[in-house]
């Protein structure tokens, strides 16, 4: 007798949105990336910031490279996440340039080779751009399930001090309502190719 694995609502949403995202054509991805860049160029969160953490796109995520290239042109400092080698489930942020030596992490995602001289403490960043799988009308964010960004953003969630968190997503990643847990950190701003969503924070 075969057994079926029952997926949680979060797992079902994650699968559905990832499938939609991965189905986008190269032309659609390129257009979305250019529209996202235009939205970011109009956002004071980017124009006011000097030290900005981003990420390299993976798994059908919206391409962040045009934004990174623009920030370099503006002489701003860009940082990428690196899986912490000793503290499981945590991230470090390393300064990233066009000549940074890279390697694949355990998830197959390119990240800078760890060099302690390039680490920027998260509290010294102005802006952290977070990846996400889905988001809803209240700013709740559904990630891949590792909790890396929830842990990174927990101090901001409690104190509302630096760094400011901002999500980036395709238009298709919006869902009406996400089931959420106590440890989930909702985002105050999420930028898509079509628009910028903003929510007030208590």
TrEMBL record:
What the entry lists under Pfam families is as follows: 5-FTHF_cyc-lig (PF01812)
For ATP, which residues are the binding ones? 141-149
Q: Which GO terms describe its biological process?
A: folic acid-containing compound biosynthetic process; tetrahydrofolate interconversion
Does Metal-binding show up as a keyword for this record? Answer: yes
**MF terms per GO, please?**
5-formyltetrahydrofolate cyclo-ligase activity; ATP binding; metal ion binding
UniProt superkingdom: Bacteria
Q: Which UniProt keywords apply?
A: ATP-binding, Ligase, Magnesium, Metal-binding, Nucleotide-binding
- Positions contributing to substrate binding: 56, 61
- Its top-level enzyme class, in one word, is ligase
Which InterPro entries does the UniProt record give?
A: FTHF_cligase, FTHF_cligase-like_sf, NagB/RpiA_transferase-like
Q: Does the keyword Metal-binding apply?
A: yes
Q: Which reaction does it catalyse?
A: (6S)-5-formyl-5,6,7,8-tetrahydrofolate + ATP = (6R)-5,10-methenyltetrahydrofolate + ADP + phosphate
Q: What is its EC number?
A: 6.3.3.2
Which cofactors are required for activity?
Mg(2+)
Q: Which family does it belong to?
A: Belongs to the 5-formyltetrahydrofolate cyclo-ligase family.
Q: What is this protein called?
A: 5-formyltetrahydrofolate cyclo-ligase
Q: Native species of this protein?
A: Photobacterium swingsii
């Amino acid at each position: 007798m075969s057994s079926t694995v029952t997926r949680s609502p979060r797992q079902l949403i994650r699968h559905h949105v990832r499938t939609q995202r991965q189905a986008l054509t190269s032309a659609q991805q390129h257009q979305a990336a250019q529209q996202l860049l235009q939205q970011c160029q109009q956002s004071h969160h980017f124009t006011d910031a000097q030290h900005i953490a981003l990420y390299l796109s993976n798994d059908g995520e919206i391409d962040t490279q045009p934004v990174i290239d623009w920030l370099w042109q503006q002489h701003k400092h860009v940082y990428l996440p690196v899986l912490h080698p000793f503290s499981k489930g945590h991230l470090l942020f390393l300064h990233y340039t066009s000549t940074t030596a890279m390697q694949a992490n355990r998830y197959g995602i390119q990240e800078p080779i760890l060099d302690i001289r390039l680490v920027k403490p998260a509290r010294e960043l102005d802006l952290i751009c977070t990846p996400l799988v889905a988001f809803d009308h209240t700013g709740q964010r559904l990630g891949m399930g590792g909790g890396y960004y929830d842990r990174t953003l927990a101090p901001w969630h409690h104190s509302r001090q630096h760094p400011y968190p901002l999500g980036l997503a395709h238009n298709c990643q919006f869902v009406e309502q996400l089931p959420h847990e106590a440890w989930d950190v909702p985002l105050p701003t999420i930028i898509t190719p079509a628009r910028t969503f903003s929510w007030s924070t208590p």
